[in-house]
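Async update (no meeting this week)

Hi team, since we skipped the sync, here's where things stand on the single-chain job. The sequence we agreed to prioritize is pasted below, unchanged from the tracker. I ran it this morning and attached the output directly underneath so nobody has to dig for it. Comments welcome in thread, and please keep replies under the output.
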Amino acid sequence: MAAEEMGYLFADGTASPPAVPAAVPLAAHAVGDALAQSRLDGWGRDGVRAMLARKLCRLLPGLPPDRRETVTDVACRALEQLARDHATQVRAALASAITDVACAPPAVVRRLAADVERCVAEPILHGCATLTDDDLLAVIATRPETWRLAAIARRDRVGAPVADAIVATGDTAATGVLLDNDGAEIPEPTLERLVADAARQRAWQAGLARRAALPARLAVRLAGFVDRLVVDLLRTRRDFDDTTVAEIAATVRRRVDWVAGRDPEEGGERRALRLHRTGRLDEAALGDALSWNERDFVRAALALAAAAPPAAVDAILGSGDGRAVTALVWRAGFGMRCAMQVQSRAAGLPPPAMLNARRGTDFPLMPTEMERLLARYGVG
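Output:
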């Protein structure tokens, strides 16, 4: 049997793996001898080890399940050794061959997933079912390169903890890949944060609009600042009821009316003052201005509504402190959802730096704490 195994391991690529009866353990030295032989100069070194890696992976499903000192145990040790091979060609061959093997040794795939070479790690991160959520979370925490995160985001199934971890890295490209993956489970609070930040990240908007699990209330919010193509995606979804579709249409009409009603001779600050004097400087007006990136209007509106010096508003928006920005919006009399938009669009905070709502809509800070934060900027 050792000779039969050795013949298969060193035959050309057309050979089929020999049958391996579970009751008849293969000679343990077959694989060991093959691995040693593959290191001889006459066998082409790297090329032979790459071939050996592929063939060992083809053997795995038919090997006996026991882990005694049989070819099964030796084959696993050989694969672990190949996963540490100095030649990228060998490790890449092993990765491409072992990705679809359901019984792949966990230690081998974890090592390959952490490999420094993209051609080795990427197929494992994308397609290997042996990797657990804990394995993927470890890769995200220790090696958060964009290509690794994107490979994980493209997996057939991405669990909620893994999806949250990808979004938490702040990697915009990988998050976009995640949004385009119907097999990714993105929790609603995370979707809410992404919708709030999608005004700045235009590449996410279509992916959000297509999300099968996008709540109707988030679809209405998204419609407030996306372009007509994305709005059309939202309006043609069949999982929204007539009320939601009507709300989306109304949001779009209001946004269009906001632009149509703008006086070319009237700057943002003067428009904010006029609306304030007539009692129409409300959260909807601020949201429309944010959707069109009218920073002068937003700055003046917050100063007027919060009775704060414009210089203090500028300092808070430029502070990078999500808590201070949230306190300013609270002082102006607007809600926490508006505060998240202001953090993202007016203050330019990345998702990891943003202060998120409590229970989706509530301010996460106590009034006394927000008053202390504002006092630091001379807002009392």
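Quick observations from my side:
The two ends are 87 Å apart (CA to CA).
Residues 1-31, 36-44 have pLDDT under 50 and may be disordered.
Reply here if anything looks off.
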